[in-house]
Design a protein that fits this description.
Shape: globular
Largest sheet: 11 strands, mixed
Helix content: 25-40%
Number of helices: 13
Strand content: 25-35%
Order of helices and strands: HEEHEHEEHHEHHEHEEEEHEEEHHHHE
Number of strands: 15
Radius of gyration: 27 Å
Distance between the termini: 105 Å
Structural class: alpha/beta
Amino acid sequence: MVKSLVLWGAACGLLLLCTGCWDSTEINQLAIVTASACDLAPQKSPAKIQRGHSVLASVQIVVPALLLGGQSQSGVPSGGSQGAFITESDTGPSPGSALLPIVKRLSRRFFLEDRRVIILGEPYAAKGISELLDEMTRNPSGRLRSILVVAHHGRGLDILKLNYPLNRIPADAILELEESRSFVATNLVQFIKLMTDGGDPYAMGIAPITKKPAPNQIPFTMDNVAVFRRDRMVGWLTKEETAGFYLIYEQANNMRFAMNAIAMPGYSGTITSVLTHTQSSISPVLQNHKLVMLVHVKLSNQIIENGTSLNLDHIEDQLLYQHQLHQHIYRQIATAINALQHKYDADCLQFGKKIHEYFPHQWHALAPHWHDVFPKITPKIYVDIALPGSGNLSAPIFEHQQKPRSGGK
């Protein structure tokens, strides 16, 4: 009797484990949003845009049937030129309200939890993105780890429509570029943290390479840094300033693909090296009762090409190259700091946070008028460069004409 009761109880327990998921939803019942864009609504077609609608919201939605399908022999997705996604747009007085008409006309459940990338149009970012930040942090369907990028001199919608030949979903390409350390992205949590820790945030810029990219061409690049002051974008760093920014920005340590082609005075050709390791630190000190920011950068560079007649196994040639590389790196860092301090008055390097950590009492006095103090702080830059090797060859393979050195050799 006892044995039968035990067996009966075990059977009931197994039946409970075999129950299905009561709230499951099939993937073909979802409109999965992988990326979205936020722009200012165009003002040249009042018949199509309601009065008071100032925001154009766009979404990139996965088409599962095309995502699971194969590719044709030409390399184009079998679903056609649109790839494995569609884009939908509409307007509203705010980012959240502009999404509602899109939700209403979709035949599937609007699924925002998988949104990976948010592209801000430059005019919208320049106006201020506080409404978008509010919607993202309050909406329970929002994903706080979504990456924020800014369309360089353009609209987010135009970027959202581009196909990426190596990925069926373009948003995946942006994530993979960030994971490969090609650039350092800022997600929503990091953006708000940078904005509320006494400094200013930044975001990567994304720009189409050509107006009409070919089907098998990489459609966009991510080279520039958008500078924000609080929630409002105030400008762009140039390529040289961006390189310097990444050299001293702690989160960008060990970025890949950072190369320098250095021209040597008195010699034809250049020497190219790739950055293999970066270690940076920013620390404030008081010198004569004045705040000074010490910026230390330690770099390891591997020489991958010698297009000059210099023999890098000779110590004097190594020192000559190292001096030129040092000047190049120092100039990049100095121009980045100068742009942030004097062109934009934007503390994207978190000088204020560092002062708060080292000198909390002084920071409480400086915080209320920090943007008046920030441009006046003197930076002192120290750069240490190591060259672990010059490759498998000492002298260059080909002889190049060179101008004679002073004193001869």
